[in-house]
Amino acid sequence: MTALDIWCHIHSLMPLCDSARSACVSRIFLRSWRCHSILILTEETLGLTQKEGQKMDIARGFTRRVDYILKNHSGTGVKILKFVIRYHYNVNTCHLNSWLQKAITQGIEEVTLFLPTKYIEDYNFPCSILLDGCGNSIRYL
């Protein structure tokens, strides 16, 4: 077991927000954060606080931060993926599909997607991302 493996394990036990903050300290922490196995992406875990009249800023912040996290995540080792998208977010389904495509990899065990009813009526889950063995390990969808 290498030092990076140890750091990856430690980061996987930390809450996402704390793990991301620690990635600012050193390159080793940054590399190990990219292997974080639990991605729970909510307003709270992303450090977004809602103030009166700032709903659009929160929505843009959510999209920007999720894009950044998933762009910099290695994509491997994700065991749990959870998205909580609030009603007032105006997240484009193309963004959502690309996030799912990036995060759902072989070995994932749990995928949870909380969507407001305005999305449920029009959204078609991209089942093709579960092909090529990516969906074989899913225990909870």
Automatic annotation (TrEMBL):
Pfam families: LRR_At1g61320_AtMIF1
Chain ranges of the At1g61320/AtMIF1 LRR domain: 69-141
Domain of life the protein comes from: Eukaryota
InterPro entries in UniProt: At1g61320/At1g61330-like, LRR_At1g61320_AtMIF1
PANTHER family cross-referenced by the UniProt entry: FBD DOMAIN-CONTAINING PROTEIN, OS02G0105600 PROTEIN
Name of the protein this chain belongs to: At1g61320/AtMIF1 LRR domain-containing protein
